[in-house]
Design goal:
CATH topology of the largest domain in chain A: Rossmann fold
Number of strands of chain A: 9
Number of helices of chain A: 9
Distance between the termini of chain A: 58 Å
Largest sheet of chain A: 7 strands, mixed
Family (chains A, B): Belongs to the transcriptional regulatory Rex family.
CATH class of the largest domain in chain A: Alpha Beta
Strand content of chain A: 15-25%
Shape of chain A: globular
Order of helices and strands of chain A: HEHHEHEHEEEHEHEHEH
Largest interface: A-B, 75 and 75 residues
Oligomer: homodimer
GO biological process, one term (chains A, B): negative regulation of DNA-templated transcription
InterPro entries (chains A, B): CoA-bd (IPR003781), NAD(P)-bd_dom_sf (IPR036291), Rex_DNA-bd_C_dom (IPR009718), Tscrpt_rep_Rex (IPR022876), WH-like_DNA-bd_sf (IPR036388), WH_DNA-bd_sf (IPR036390)
Helix content of chain A: 40-55%
Radius of gyration of chain A: 21 Å
Function (chains A, B): Modulates transcription in response to changes in cellular NADH/NAD(+) redox state.
CATH architecture of the largest domain in chain A: 3-Layer(aba) Sandwich
Strand order of the largest sheet of chain A: 5-6-4-3-7-8-9
Organism (chains A, B): Caproicibacterium argilliputei
Chain lengths: 221, 221
C-alpha cells in the first residue's frame, strides 16, 4: 500500500507532470525507462524523482528502471483520475466557455455534467453539446445529479454568494478562477486556484528583472 | 533603491497577491494599513509580509503601517506594470479567444497588439476589436510593431516550431498555456507556464486524498 502522509505540495504538484510525461512515453511506444533518462527529459534529478515516488511506496527496480505503462497507471491511481468526480461549471462567459470546451475533464478525474449561468442571453446556448442551464434551477439539478466539484468562472464579486449556496448542498471542492479566497470562509473546502492575473504579473516581474542578457532585444530580421 | 538579488520565486509569487489586495483596499477607500491587519486579510503572518517587503527595501514605518496607495504603487513598480510590454497572442481557438477577451493586459504590464492564427476560418474574425491575423504575416508585423512577449494558446505539438520562429525575431518572453517545455531548448527564455491540466489533476489528488471529514458528502437538501 502506498504511504501517503505529510506529502508536501511541491511533490504533489510534480505528480501531474510525471503522469503527463509517462502517458506521452506510452503513446510513443516506450515500455521501460530509467530514472536517469526520465530525469533528463523532465529537467529534474534522478534522485529527486526516486524520492518523490518513494513518498508513495516507490515503484522502480534497482538497475531495471520503471515500466512506463505500470508507473503511469500507478500515478494515475494516486492522483485519483478514475474517480470521475461529477462536476458543474458556473459562468458561461468567455473563460467558462473556453474551459468547458478546451479541457479534457474525463481524462483528468472529472466528468462535466452541467454548465450554469444566470444571464438570460447565455441560458440555453450550447457548449460542448451541453445546454447552459439557469442557475435558479441548481438546487433541483443537485437533488438528481449530486455534483461533487464546481468550476468557478464567475466574477470575484459573485463567488462568495455562489459558494454560500453550493457548500451547504455538499459541494466542497472547487476549481476557482476568481481571486476570491474561498478558504478564508470555508477552511475545509478543497480549493485549487488558477490566478491568471497573478501569473501574468509574475511574468511581468520576471521580464522586468531578467538579467540584462535576457532583456527584450532589438528585433533583428 | 530596492535590493533585488536572489529573491526566491515564492516571494515573487506573493507580490501579485499583495498588489491585487492593496489595489482593492485603495478602491475601498482605505488609506493606511498595518502589517497585522494586512496579514489577517491575506492569511499570511505579519512577519512574513514584512520579510517579503524587506527583500525590496521595506516600505512601512514601525508603529504606523503602510500607506496603501504608496505601497500599491511601489509593488506595481517592482512588478514592472508600467512597461506595457508589446504582446502578441498565438492561437485564436477557444482558449486564445477567452484569454484575449478576458484578461486586462494593460493593467498587468502588457499591451496586446496582435492575435495570430493559421486556420483560414479564424483569420479575419474579430476578438476584442482586433482582427485575427495570418501567422504567415508575422515577420512583417514584427518589423513594424516589435513585439516583446508572446502568449501561446496553441497545441503542444505546434509550440516548438512557433518558438523556433519567434525566438530569433527577438521574442524571448512567453506566457505558455501548452505543456511544451520552452526552457529545455531555450534556457534563457523568460517563461511563465499555465498548466491547466496539471492544476485540475492536482485538485483531483487533493479531493481523492482529503481527510475523511472533507470527502464529498451525500447531498443534503
Amino acid at each position: 500500500m502506498p504511504k501517503r502522509e505529510n506529502i508536501s505540495m511541491s511533490v504533489i504538484r510534480r505528480l501531474p507532470r510525471y503522469y503527463r510525461f509517462l502517458n506521452q512515453l506510452k503513446r510513443d511506444g516506450v515500455t521501460r525507462i530509467s530514472s536517469t533518462e526520465l530525469s533528463g527529459k523532465l529537467g529534474l534529478t534522478a534522485s529527486q524523482i526516486r524520492q518523490d515516488l518513494n513518498c508513495f511506496g516507490g515503484f522502480g527496480q534497482q538497475g531495471y528502471g520503471y515500466i512506463v505503462e505500470q508507473l503511469a497507471a500507478e500515478i494515475g491511481h494516486i492522483l485519483g483520475v478514475e474517480h470521475n468526480y461529477r462536476t458543474v461549471l458556473f459562468g458561461a462567459g468567455n473563460l467558462g466557455r473556453a474551459i468547458a470546451a478546451h479541457m479534457n475533464f474525463e481524462q483528468l478525474g472529472f466528468e462535466l455534467i452541467g454548465i450554469f449561468d444566470d444571464a438570460p442571453q447565455k441560458i440555453g446556448t450550447v457548449i460542448r453539446g451541453m445546454e447552459v442551464l439557469n442557475t435558479a434551477c441548481f438546487e433541483n439539478f443537485c437533488k438528481e445529479k449530486k455534483p461533487e466539484m464546481a468550476v468557478l468562472c464567475i466574477p470575484r464579486t459573485a463567488v462568495e454568494a455562489t459558494v454560500d449556496r453550493l457548500y451547504p448542498l455538499g459541494i466542497h471542492n472547487y476549481w476557482n478562477f476568481s481571486h476570491y479566497d474561498i478558504n478564508m470562509k470555508y477552511p475545509n473546502a478543497v480549493v485549487e486556484n488558477v490566478h491568471l492575473n497573478d501569473s501574468l504579473l509574475t511574468l511581468c516581474y520576471c521580464i522586468s528583472n531578467a538579467p540584462e542578457a535576457q532583456k527584450p532585444q532589438k528585433v533583428q530580421i
